[in-house]
Design a protein that fits this description.
Elements (H helix, E strand, L loop, with lengths): L6 E5 L2 H15 L7 E5 L2 E2 L2 E2 L3 H12 L7 H8 L2 H6 L5 H19 L8 H6 L1 E7 L2 E7 L1 H14 L10 E3 L3 H4 L13 E6 L4 E12 H23 L2 E13 L6 H14 L2
Parallel strand pairs: 1-2, 9-10
Antiparallel strand pairs: 2-10, 3-4, 5-6, 7-8, 8-9
Helix pairs in contact: 1-9, 1-10, 2-10, 3-9
Length: 271
C-alpha cells in the first residue's frame, strides 16, 4: 500500500495537465507513484484548451506501437464528440438512440475489445435490477437523460439539485468483478456533476488505476467532451474537470528511453 503523499496537478490547459502527470510518472518511478488529483480549467466555448505539439507527439508515440489507440479514439469511448457535432448537437434522447442503434454496432464489429461495451454505452444504457411490487425486475437506465431531467426540473423551480443525485456509474459488479489478471475495461468507475458558480458545471471522475501514456490524455479529453455535452443540455458552461487516480502507471510495454524525447518536448512547451 502506498504511503506517498498524493499529488495535486492543476492547469488551465489539458495538454499541460497531462504533461505534468506524465512527467510525474516518468520521474517518480513505479515504486514511488502516489495518488493523483488532476484539475483542468481553461475551457473556451465548452472545449478544453490544448497544446497541439504535445498531443501530436503523443499520438505519434502511440501509433508506433501495436494495439495502442490515439487520443481521439480513446476519448470517443467516453463521449463520441465528433459524431455529436456532425449530427447537429442532438439532445440526449435521440443521440443515445442513434449511438446504440447505429454507432455502437459498428464499433463492436470493428474491434473485439468493444465486446464488453463502451463507457458511453453504459452511461446511456445501464442494465440493472430493481424491486418492483415485491419482485426483482430487469431495468435499463439512461443515466445521462436522468441526470439532465433532474437538473432541469430543479432549475425550473429555482432549486439546486442535490449532488448525490448527479451520479453516473460505469462499473457493474455483475459484469466486471472477475478473477482475470488483467481486465482492460472499465478503468473509469464513476462520474459525478457539481456546481461551479451560478452557471458553471464541474465534472469529476474516479479511476482506481490509469495508464498515463496509453489512455490518460484520451480519458481527460473524453471527459471534457462529455462535460461539454452535459453543459449544452443543461444550459450551463463547462468550466472544470476533476480526475482522481488512485494508482497512476506509465503504461504497458514502454521503456523510459522510448519516452524521453516526449518528456523533453513537454518540458520545452510549459510556460
Amino acid at each position: 500500500m502506498s504511503t506517498n503523499t498524493p499529488e495535486i496537478i492543476a492547469e488551465s490547459n489539458l495538454s499541460h495537465a497531462w504533461g505534468r502527470v506524465f512527467l510525474h510518472a516518468m520521474d517518480r518511478g513505479a515504486a514511488n507513484l502516489a495518488p493523483l488529483m488532476v484539475s483542468i480549467t481553461g475551457f473556451v466555448d465548452g472545449v478544453p484548451t490544448e497544446d497541439e505539439p504535445i498531443r501530436s507527439s503523443l499520438d505519434r508515440i502511440l501509433a508506433s506501437q501495436p494495439k495502442k489507440f490515439s487520443c481521439k479514439i480513446s476519448a470517443s469511448t467516453i463521449f463520441p464528440y465528433e459524431v455529436w457535432l456532425r449530427r447537429g448537437r442532438p439532445s440526449v434522447s435521440p443521440f443515445s438512440t442513434l449511438y446504440l442503434t447505429q454507432f455502437l454496432p459498428r464499433l463492436r464489429a470493428r474491434d473485439r475489445h468493444n465486446g464488453h461495451g463502451t463507457y458511453f454505452e453504459r452511461m446511456v444504457s445501464f442494465h440493472g435490477s430493481k424491486l418492483l411490487k415485491g419482485q426483482c425486475e430487469h431495468v435499463t437506465k439512461n443515466q445521462l437523460e436522468h441526470v439532465i431531467s433532474i437538473w432541469r426540473r430543479d432549475r425550473a423551480v429555482g432549486r439546486s439539485s442535490r449532488h448525490s443525485a448527479l451520479q453516473i456509474t460505469v462499473f457493474d459488479p455483475a459484469k466486471d468483478h472477475s478473477g482475470a489478471a488483467l481486465l482492460g475495461f472499465p478503468c473509469l468507475q464513476q462520474v459525478s456533476l457539481s456546481y461551479d458558480g451560478h452557471d458553471g458545471l464541474a465534472v469529476s471522475a474516479f479511476y482506481p488505476t490509469q495508464y498515463i501514456v496509453d489512455r490518460a490524455y484520451g480519458n481527460y479529453l473524453g471527459l471534457c467532451h462529455l462535460g461539454c455535452f452535459l453543459a449544452h443540455e443543461m444550459s450551463m458552461k463547462m468550466v472544470r474537470l476533476n480526475c482522481f487516480i488512485g494508482l497512476p502507471e506509465l503504461g504497458q510495454g514502454w521503456t523510459k528511453n522510448q519516452l524521453r524525447g516526449l518528456a523533453d518536448l513537454i518540458r520545452s512547451r510549459f510556460p
